[in-house]
Amino acid sequence: MTRIVVVTSGKGGVGKTTTSASFASGLAMRGFKTAVIDFDVGLRNLDLIMGCERRVVYDLVNVISGEATLNQALIKDKHCENLFVLPASQTRDKDALTEEGVEKVLKDLEHMGFEYVICDSPAGIERGAVMALTFADEAIIVTNPEVSSVRDSDRILGILQAKSKRAQAGGEPVKEHLLVTRYSPKRVEDGEMLSYKDVQEILRVPIIGVIPESESVLHASNQGTPAIHIEQSEVAEAYKDVIARFLGEDAPLRFVSYEKPGLFKRLFGG
Amino acid sequence: MTHDTANNSDIALIEFKGTTLPVLAITLRSLDLQELTNAGSTLFGEGAFFDDDLAVLDLSQVITWPEDIAWSLIVQLLTSHGLRVLGVTRANPDLTASAARAGLPLLALSAGRSAKPAPVAKKASAPDPELDKIPASLRKKPAPETAPVGSAGPDKSEPEESLLDNPGTLIIDRPLRSGQQVYARGGDLVILAAVNPGAEVIADGNIHVYAPLRGRALAGARGNAQARILTTVFAAELVSIAGIYRTFEDGVPAKLANQPVQVRLAQEPAISANTGLKSRLEIDILRVD
């Protein structure tokens, strides 16, 4: 039974695509056959972050409109066995997405034996974002510890609860997970930034992880490698923890406390 | 006259009992069809604004009227906006007679009730494509009381309660997200989880929020000035009772912020008879100990 997971946020630029890439890679690394789909028609980024932009021939819109098969459009990831990318169209716009079309693509992915399908949502609450969440079984709400991101995440949660197929059918609701990204424990300590607990208190959704702010994310996108592959980095470790928790394992939150550096470190840097 | 108990054919084919229905008073200041059509479009847009709500036309403010009042067309206009017109009220003898000829009876409003519907509430209860309604799965409504069948005997003096007298309280136990709106028609609203900024809770009766109220709360939406808003953690963006509202541009006053609070409408007699009662929102700490 395929599990469809949407990565959404409402607000733009908070780390949805970065998360979709690393989350999908993490599941593939654990041995699950995984597909990740870019729903940002017209402004595609997932292919860049995954490093397969030069191998895009057909895209999601081609498949929906019958111009190509899923097999022709899916790109095999070069970092991971088991991982396939379905890019968005760059020349069309979101009106090309239809509910029936998206449903068929997801059904076909299930027939091909995919165990997880990750839907990378665009920012906003319009067609692309709604299409990405309509068929979701689970949702990762990516939120920066910052007021407008929290407000937009709250809004998208409301939309998820109203417009997903699960909500409309009255069945088991979409399972919600809160992922706080670009977290800086030092700034929280200094009172400049909301803490992950504050964010959770407002949104009332269980936390699946906290990803620290890090330069390695920028390096990773420039290289076309999902951040989870940057060995030894805090971001990679944090994403691995997210995968563990998603799969039901116990993993205490890391990278959330600020330790004041000792006198030596403060004098001589480091 | 005593009732025969045994025979089935004696059971009344027609039964009657007292009941109360909510009715809107629509005050008209013109009876010109074209003027009303334009005003209707401006106020309500095209199509249904109301939800098949019962209405009575208050004609006390009509000063001049055309020789031939197009009553049926006026009623049709209001029907297209979602109102079901029952009759007219507070009309002078000429208008009363004219309306009666068109089949609109003169109805008397009960004394002491505020007849004007609250303008803020009307805006809030209009179906807004921007806002999401709470899906039915989130609502918890207690089972309606079934009215007992038949009467016990001639000495029973109390009228039996119908569902309309006691519409029940709407209970919501999940957080209300930004952009969501809940309307408890005809009754009270109880919310057991946070009302987030950007969310709206509306009730014809009282509103109770046993959690942080950070959004907008509009009680007494159809003009019930006795309605109150009560919350355990007050941080609202806007509160309104029977259309009288207050926003908190500089944030909620420090002594009320995040405290248990009660909001109600204090009505004071005004200086001139024309303006009627002067209303002021009172927001006080609610003592819970």
From TrEMBL, chain A:
Binding site for ATP: 11-18
Gene3D superfamilies in the cross-refs: P-loop containing nucleotide triphosphate hydrolases
Entry annotated with the keyword Manganese: no
Segments forming domain CobQ/CobB/MinD/ParA nucleotide binding: 5-226
InterPro entries: CobQ/CobB/MinD/ParA_Nub-bd_dom, MinD, MinD_FleN, P-loop_NTPase, ParA/MinD_ATPase
Keywords: ATP-binding, Cell cycle, Cell division, Nucleotide-binding, Septation
A GO biological-process term: negative regulation of cell division
Keyword Magnesium: no
Superkingdom, taxonomy of origin: Bacteria
Subunit structure: Interacts with MinC and FtsZ.
Function: ATPase required for the correct placement of the division site. Cell division inhibitors MinC and MinD act in concert to form an inhibitor capable of blocking formation of the polar Z ring septums. Rapidly oscillates between the poles of the cell to destabilize FtsZ filaments that have formed before they mature into polar Z rings.
The name this protein goes by in its record: Septum site-determining protein MinD
Organism name: Fluviibacter phosphoraccumulans
The organism's taxonomic lineage, starting at the top: Bacteria, Pseudomonadati, Pseudomonadota, Betaproteobacteria, Rhodocyclales
Name of the gene this protein is made from: minD
UniProtKB/TrEMBL annotation, chain B:
Low complexity composition bias: residue spans: 118-127
Stored InterPro entries: CAP/MinC_C, MinC, MinC_C_sf, MinC_N, Septum_form_inhib_MinC_C
Domain Septum formation inhibitor MinC C-terminal, residue spans: 171-268
Keyword Cell cycle: yes
One of the Pfam families matching this protein, by short name: MinC_N
Keyword list, A-Z: Cell cycle, Cell division, Septation
Residues of the Septum formation inhibitor MinC N-terminal domain: 14-85
GO biological process: cell morphogenesis; division septum assembly; regulation of cell division; regulation of cell septum assembly
Region (Disordered): 118-167
Entry superkingdom: Bacteria
Family under the similarity heading: Belongs to the MinC family.
Quaternary structure and interacting proteins, as annotated: Interacts with MinD and FtsZ.
Entry function: Cell division inhibitor that blocks the formation of polar Z ring septums. Rapidly oscillates between the poles of the cell to destabilize FtsZ filaments that have formed before they mature into polar Z rings. Prevents FtsZ polymerization.
Protein name listed in UniProt: Probable septum site-determining protein MinC
